[in-house]
Amino acid sequence: MEKDYFYDPRKRTKITSGSHRAALTDGYRHKGMRRKLVQLLQKKGIEDKRILEAIGTLPRHFFLDKAFEEWAYQDKPFPIAKAQTISQPFTVAYQTALLNIKKGDKILEIGTGSGYQASILSMLGANVYTIERQETLYLSAKKLNKELNIPRIHFYYKDGFDGLQHIAPFDKILVTAGALEKPQNLLQQLAIGGQMVIPIGDDVQVMYRITRISESQFSDEKFDNFRFVPFLEGIEKD
Ligand code: SAH
Question: What domains does the chain contain, in order, with CATH numbers?
Answer without folding.
Answer: 84-226 (3.40.50.150)
